[in-house]
Amino acid sequence: MAESKTILIAEDSSVILNLTKKILELQNYKILVAKNGGEVIKQVESNKIDAILMDLNIPVKNGMDCTREIRAHKDKDIANIPIIAVTGNANNYSMEDFKEAGVNDYLPKPLDFDLLVETVKKYTGK
């Protein structure tokens, strides 16, 4: 059996985090979590991550800043991790904002779990 892919979920809402985690675990993904922007950077530097679900409104360092920091990382494997923005207020951002920050895709809240799984599969090749 193929090695399971690792997804980092950067989300400060326990409800959304737990739901998302359950859905992806049912698809045989390994899940890591970060409740704030500082934890996101620590996680990507200490684990091999195949994709990140990045809530844009996380404390310490918001999702857009985390994305920019990851994209600027000296380690190319880290800099190229697919990042899927998750936000309840996508209207505050344009696709240009997402592209400029280095976001690969985005999912609006409330999350559509079928779309979530489909989007994660698209970026992990699973």
TrEMBL record:
The keyword GTP-binding does not apply. It comes from the Bacteria. Pfam families: Response_reg. The modification 4-aspartylphosphate is found at D55. CDD domains: REC_hyHK_CKI1_RcsC-like. Keywords: Phosphoprotein, Two-component regulatory system. Residues 6-124 form the Response regulatory domain. SMART domains: REC. The keyword Heme does not apply. GO terms for biological process: phosphorelay signal transduction system. Signal peptide: none annotated. This is Response regulator receiver domain-containing protein. It comes from Pontibacter ummariensis.
